[in-house]
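Dear U.,

For the methods section draft, I wanted the exact inputs and outputs in one place so we can describe them consistently. I've listed the two proteins in the order they'll appear in the manuscript figures. Please don't edit the token lines directly; just add comments below if something needs changing.

First protein:
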Amino acid sequence: MKRVFASLILAAVVSANAFAQKPVKGSVTKAESYLNKMELNEAKQQIDAAFANDPKGKVNKNPKAWYIKGQIYSSIAQDTTALSVDEAALKTAVESFDHVKEMESAKLYAVQADQQLANLQGFFWNKATEDYNEDDFEGAVENFDFVKVINPADTNAYLYGGVAAQQLGDDKAAVESYEGYLNHGGAKLDVWNTIVFIEKKNENYEKALEVATKAREAFPHNKDLIQQELSLLIELNRIGDAETSIKKSIENDPNNAVLYYDLGYIYEAQKKWDDAIDAYKKAVEIDPENYDATYAIGAAYYNQAVPVWNEAANMDLKTYQQKGAEVEEKALKLFNAGVPYFEKALTLKPDDQGVLEILLGIYQKDNKTAKVEEITKKLDSLQK
């Protein structure tokens, strides 16, 4: 009985060994054959084993082997039956094709590898745009990220990946993608402004300032960027830094009207009206057709006049009878000091409704009937 039992055990062991899976030695040829039949698991086993069991390095030195490996892993990454993209497979495919290009440069497999990478990039780009158009922003972000894996220099993947992330409400991912766009040579001004907007929205003023400063370096003559940087410095109670920065820029570029305009802006923020007006006038001296600086001079006088005029308007009757006329005269003097500059601004932009309305208000306060009628007609014609 014991012999029978021992025989049964022995038979079971022999049977188990007979059915045990033999280790895959690996073969590039077999891997290619399985790939052609789209039997991807078997193809992967063969190619992985071929590279692993390569004591003499023949496989690792063979461009075709790397090319087939890239094809296999590329097919796995693009498998539409899978629940999700195998990102590791995608990275392996890209690394394999890149290795072929390094080994062969302009030869056959290198050219084919380049085409495979382009096809792979197109596959995920199309998925990303399809997801975006269907408002699947999460899918769009993921697929734009895959495009970046395939081609890290594709600035459009970073740009539209950032847009998709914004739509998704993921500010962190959006900023990272936009920064990738800029770091890889993207040059759209809107991207700089969008990063600043996001950081300001999240009250990351230091980061917003850092980005605004870099943007100004990229676009040194852009008025809006300079003012954006200055407004952030003011927000951070670093107006002294702003003034120092602009004055240093003026030393390096003394004939830049925009810089004098911005110096005036800084002085105006501190209510240093005379200094602000002098700076704006310097900007106009350099560039007589500078609308912004011309308007700013008028606005500087106007902004001083308004609280003085309101002081008279808010007086009780007794106080007004005593000194109302004197206060109004002081306000009118300031209003009228700005009129020539508003009128000059109007010659530069004849249909500027905002300037027309400012002039109308001043002429009404100063009882200049003919001027009131003239401006009223002009405004009426613009509104038809």
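Second protein (the one for the lower panel):
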Amino acid sequence: MRKRNGDAARVDVAEYLDGDTRPEIGLARAFRTLLSMPRPGILDLDDRRIEITGPLDLFSLAGRDVSRAKHLVRNGTIVAVPGGRWTETTHVRSARHDPSRDPAWLFDLGPDAVDVGSSVGGQGEGVFVRSIDPVARSVELSQPLRVPPSRRPHTFGRARYAIDLSGLRRVAGLTLERITLELRGAASGVLLAPEGEAVSLLDCTISAPHRYGVASPGRGCQGLRVERCRFDSLTEIAPARRRTAAIACHGDGALIRDSGFTGFGTALILAGTGQLVLGNEFAQSPRRTSALPTPAVILSRGHAVAQVRTNRFANCTILLSDRHCDERVSAVGLGGVAIGGNIFEAWAATDTTAFLVVKPCGPDRAIRDVAVDGNTFRSLGGPMRRVERVDESTGTIDRAAAASLRVMGNIFCGITNETRTPVTLRFDQPEAARRWILEPAGDLAFGGCLGEIVAILPEWPLLDHSGQPVGGVMPQVRTTTVGQARRIELHWPEPVSGRVAVTLSCDRT
């Protein structure tokens, strides 16, 4: 029975739940009714607590386009009861990857198919199966893989989700409001459709997901909106070994605001552009531990065009990578992100610990268009060398190609080297020489990126070989690269000694 509620039709939850001996079957029927409505609809669970032993049965909606009307599900708790229906299936299939295709595909798959929504293991972490072509024995992926195009085995894992919309072709305008998913480490949360937009989670709680809180196998998360939500993961596993993610989003324009994330291996995997991460709290654990910081936010699109502002990172970091883009996008560079007004805290630190990590996935990547301003960086577990670093375990950075890097107005507590750009450094040359070699790499952002020399000023009279002042001379300047470090050469018209102040910038224009 459907009741009118203003301009929206209301699904009578009592009719479905009270009229069925198994409430989870009634809930699935109510969901199907709502999503089948051609006009706006509301499913109000009336603060009921409903236990389910497996994913809600939405298979009769397979292939449908649910984007013509807005639908709202609100006010209820769904509890996943541990059992065999939640078991994640894993398949190893040999396939050939073609990185030149857009979108990315795996070809010549084995005779046994994989399911839409399966995640790809190994180098494909965060990559999902978006669609399947059984005739061609191939699958479309949500993102390209960082593997050679040769034939090789791939591991596909299919988690089980309490609300699984992957069978639908397209879902748009769906809102979950004041919904609690108690997943108990058995089930994952919500799997969106392969296509769609404007899905919202408002004032929701997702606790203890098996793998993912919210995920999409394709672009069904376009314009995803998550506000005032709470995501909590199991914390019995050591932080470095956790494989859970609160949100895996491949679409553009996601808004994650005023939400809390605790205990995840990674809270946010954002593979699109135009993402806004505002006013959230990311905590590695509910209480302070001696574990090293782990990534909370991964921006994996390369040039992300994202804003990360006014968040708190408790023993958590930000990772900027080009893991989920092809070579054409990677050529634009790593960056396009503004990080401002955040609080970063580390509970433990080593020589390689940093709050901002750039990890290229190919050779000669350039860091461009990065602004880090107005943040507070604090190390509570001993001194931290620096707040930013480059991880070149899977690629390299071309430091000579850096452009538009600005690190200004930050507060450093317990940090040995305070990163700034532009930065003014002082260099002493005790012996008179025509060529002075200045090595400022340790004082420059992201491993020695040098954009341009803004100013050079002698701090007192320069002296010649005999100790007599030399006036009216200025050097010619040359920058060179030695190994991975950028250095500056000052060439004077005659041998001189003394001190100069040099203002350097990573902002190449």
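Candidate sentences for the figure legend, describing the second protein: Residues 423-505 form one domain. The mean pLDDT is 88.

Thanks,
Y.
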